[in-house]
Amino acid sequence: MMKTMTCKQLGGACDLEFKAETFDEIAALSKAHGTAMFQQKEPAHLKAMREMQELMQSPNAMKNWFDDKRREFNKL
What's the domain count of the chain? Predict the structure, then answer.
């Protein structure tokens, strides 16, 4: 079953929707979008990426964030 989450729901900065059947697929779509926004130097996404990089400094915080997003996806 296809599920939809937005860039913002996944820690990003816009309302672009990603549709996928699994959380891993939706995470990959979000990552590809983030890469494109990084290459375009889009300010709001760069800010969101800096915040994500800060989160990545703590392995537990990053794991908890991913677990929360996976649960959110699974509830859809």
Answer: 1
